Amino acid sequence: MFSIAVSGLVCSSAYAQQAEQDWGIAAIYRMASIPFKTENGDQTVSTFVPMMFFDNEHVFIDGMQAGAYLYQGDNIEFNALMRMRFVDIPASAQNAHQGDTFDFGAQLRYQFSQNWQLDTELMSDKDMRFHVNLSASANYQWGDWQLTPHATVRYKDADFNSEYYAFNDYTGERIGAGIDVNAGVRARYHVYSNLYLLGAASVTHLDSNAYQSQVVDDRFEGEFYLGFGFFNDKSKAPKSELSNKRYWRVAHGWATPSNIGEIIKLNREKDPYNNQLTSLFYGHPLTDELFGVPIDIYFTPGIVHHWSSEVQSSVTEYVAAIKAYYTFDWPTQWRFGVAEGLSYVDSFTYVENEEMKSKGYNPSNLLNYLDFSVDVNVGDLFNSNDLNNVWIGYSLHHRSAIFEKASQYGRIKGGSNYNTLYLQVDF
Q: Three-state SS for 161?
């Protein structure tokens, strides 16, 4: 998905002046009921979920789902789709089971009125367990409120039902296919400028085969979430031209077993095996102000190559994030930057795997991504106008799991850090 995002964004905007984009970054606290029988009597489970939002004519990221527009007509569109799905089991079992997952598939959307749309989806997990969704949803806005009621009828094949509602790998029980029903509402409230409050609630009625599984205790599943986010200021018209430009950033870095606090204090420990990475990031401008302050915001997908060493094979990492830069003069132009997003690795790096082993965790391919950077403008540094679009700097490349608060990251604590040097070119 991230490679699709890079190619789509570059193709659509390589020679065009950038207008303000539809974007957002948010954090929610999700709580859900546990429909399964539990040894310790847990009835609810909670998780902290960072979310990103971005939409242009080629790709979209909408909180817990993302995809690519493959065809768009007057009232019909066909999309490739990827969506996060939670498996609500007790928090104490989530690291061992690693239940939360992503589903992949296709979506056909029909806009049958100004407010209402109908979606038909064919989805599968990574092991080809299928489900089919038929969903109706609406979008209503009253002043500062935006409400999205929705209802979904979902058909699950026998393999899907057996895996996620009978846990057949553990119990040996096989159950048949089934149809469940979900209904709920999502809400967004505009507080001030770029600040919004978010909320949602829904309930699911399980099919008979799932409900009669030996591990299921309740026919109904409920969930709700509350949070906040930063989005386009709806009280202002979108800007037709932004001051910040697109960029490419190339970085090379070295692993360290030190944590963020130690790195900030310059108390950095060297990795004895000299594990290294090289990364390439694309920056797509979203806006050039936040709460009226000149802060450049970008959507920045990237790909990272972790080089092989005596203790690890090569690893590929995929990243998508929202990054903010604040520019100041001292006496040349400097920038502080911070990014928040998602990171997925196709296998585990040595430094991260060793930390997880030392703490008794199973590692997670998907983790939260942070990037802290400081750079200086090369044109100002050498008094050359020809180099005003070039920046050199330092960044901290960080993967972690939010202190056991996030089920989608395997309910772990810790991660990995790389000190990197980079060259960034605006265009």
A: helix
d(CA 113, CA 40): 48
**pTM of the shown model:** 0.91
Q: How far apart are the first and last CA of the chain?
A: 24
CA distance 31 to 18: 39
Two tokens at 231?
A: 């989005």
Q: Mean pLDDT throughout 12-22?
A: 69
The reply to whether 409 and 275 lie within a common domain is yes
Task: For residue range 288-308, list pLDDT tens digits in order.
Answer: 999 999 999 999 999 999 999
Q: Is the peptide bond before 331 cis (omega within 30 degrees of 0)?
A: yes
- Number of C-beta neighbours around residue 308 at 10 A: 12
Question: For 123-164, what is each residue's pLDDT tens digit?
Answer: 999 999 999 999 999 999 999 999 999 999 999 999 999 999
Same-domain pairing of 257 and 225: no
Q: How far out from the chain centre does Cα 247 lie?
A: 21
Kindly report the CA angle at 156 between 86 and 35, in degrees rounded to 5?
45
CATH number at residue 33: 2.40.160.40
The CATH number covering residue 346 comes to: 2.40.160.20
- Mean pLDDT over each residue of the chain, to the nearest integer: 93
Dist. CA 16–CA 188, nearest whole Å: 32
CA distance 246 to 323: 12
User: What's the structural domain count of the chain?
Assistant: 2
